[in-house]
Design goal:
single chain; mainly alpha; 2 strands; elongated
Length: 427
């Protein structure tokens, strides 16, 4: 281990000491056994974790993408570790590590691209620069597929002509073209991503305060909770400031994307120099600008896994093709309250007695529809004899209109005509 650390600290000396190695495809010192074996073990641990997280949080696209990336990283570092030996045919190991480690971040970015579309759904379609969130996924995943196909074609050509340095130049150029496509698509993604961040964090605060976006001092004082009502209300529970998994999720996505972007620029420069260039012949550059960058990106998105950040186990967030002017669904509580209000109105409309039909029919209709009414029979005595009054008291209505009072009118009938009691009569 101490020898490995000493080699990492002085790559130029190590390269010069091993420059005479003729049976290596690395144009310099052989890959370090200890470091590459450790990286294979680390990415195998990442693979196990993302397999579990994928099943647990039900984030199939992100989990599947990172599982593929981790598998390729494990195979690539196994190839580098096996290349440490002297002698023998190492062409298979060399091609294995070159192809796997080069195309692995394509799958990592495929998982990250989809998260921008999810964030637009969470914050609101009005913050998208493209017409709808689904276009982000379509465009950048398509770019990833094109980049992967080009790099795979270049790797296959290199594998078939690995012993012919002249013929393999074509494969190298194709490989570089694939990396260029990947780097260009990542540049476009970063532009759209930072535009999204500017809108939700800076422009929204400026509009909230009614000041310019350049008033950083005033904008900095506005807490995120103060402007959360300006975002999509449907997913307010995800943006809860008490949930640390989402509070730093956007920062984690940003850091992971930047790390992989640095790695892609390094790989593009490395292969542009050719197979005997300075970058490819010094493993220190590979360790610092490839291995560590991809490891940091994977570690960050293992801690701030999207499945935990966006409550993937309990909440499904569909990425839709609805445009920026999409009117969001109402808040669930508002929908519930509105539904109850509508039901109450409909009930009142159904139970409201129709006008006309006479006083007698109005009284019996009211009795049938209002079971909760208190009905009392009060015998009263007047000059012309004993009469029966049917008095209906509605405990829910204190102020009745003139029409409702008709149903409470005094019903009079001479006692000598069967002495009818309307409370016990039936139609």
């Amino acid at each position: 281990m101490s020898q490995t650390i000493r080699d990492i600290a002085s790559p130029v000396i190590a390269a010069a000491a091993a420059a005479t190695t003729t049976d290596s495809y690395y144009s310099g010192p052989l890959p370090k056994l200890g470091f590459n074996s450790a990286m294979a073990g680390i990415f195998f641990a990442f693979l196990l974790y993302h397999t579990w997280a994928c099943v647990y949080t039900k984030q199939w696209w992100f989990g599947g993408s990172f599982m593929c990336a981790c598998i390729l990283e494990v195979l690539g570092y196994i190839g580098r570790a096996l290349s440490h030996q002297h002698g023998g045919d190492q062409s298979d190991y060399y091609v294995l590590q070159m192809v796997c480690l080069t195309i692995a971040p394509v799958f990592s970015m495929a998982g990250i691209y989809f998260q921008l579309a999810k964030l637009i759904e969470i914050y609101g379609h009005q913050f998208a620069l493209l017409p709808n969130p689904l276009m982000y996924s379509y465009i950048f995943v398509a770019c990833d597929i094109v980049s992967l196909a080009i790099q795979a074609a270049g790797g296959a050509m290199d594998a078939s002509t690995i012993n012919d340095s002249t013929a393999s130049e074509t494969g190298s150029h194709i490989f570089v073209a694939g990396l260029a496509v990947q780097t260009a698509s990542m540049s476009a993604f970063l532009y759209l991503f930072f535009d999204f961040l500017f809108k939700i964090f800076v422009k929204t605060r400026a509009e909230y305060l009614g000041v310019s976006v350049w008033k950083w001092g005033a904008l900095w004082k506005v807490k995120q909770s103060e402007i959360d009502h300006l975002y999509r209300p449907k997913y307010a529970m995800i943006r809860d400031g008490k949930r640390w998994t989402f509070r730093y999720f956007i920062l984690a996505i940003t850091a992971a994307t930047v790390f992989i972007y640095i790695r892609c620029i390094y790989r593009l420069c490395e292969l542009a120099e050719g197979w005997t260039g300075y970058l490819i012949s010094h493993e220190w550059f590979f360790i610092a600008l490839d291995a560590l960058m991809v490891s940091f990106a994977t570690l960050i998105l293992s801690i701030w896994h999207p499945g935990f950040a966006i409550m993937g186990r309990h909440l499904f967030i569909p990425v839709t093709a609805q445009g920026r002017n999409h009117i969001d669904d109402a808040d669930p509580e508002s929908i519930h309250s509105t539904s109850e209000s509508n039901d109450l109105n409909n009930t009142e409309e159904k139970t409201e007695p129709k006008r006309g039909g006479g006083v007698l029919s109005s009284v019996f209709r009211r009795k049938k529809q209002k079971d909760s009414e208190d009905v009392t029979t009060i015998p009263i005595e007047q000059d012309d004899g004993l009469f029966t009054r049917n008095l209906y008291e509605d405990s829910n209505e204190n102020n009745e209109d003139d029409d409702d009072r008709e149903s409470h009118e005094l019903q009079q009938q001479p006692r000598n005509s069967s002495n009818l009691n309307f409370n016990n009569a039936t139609l």
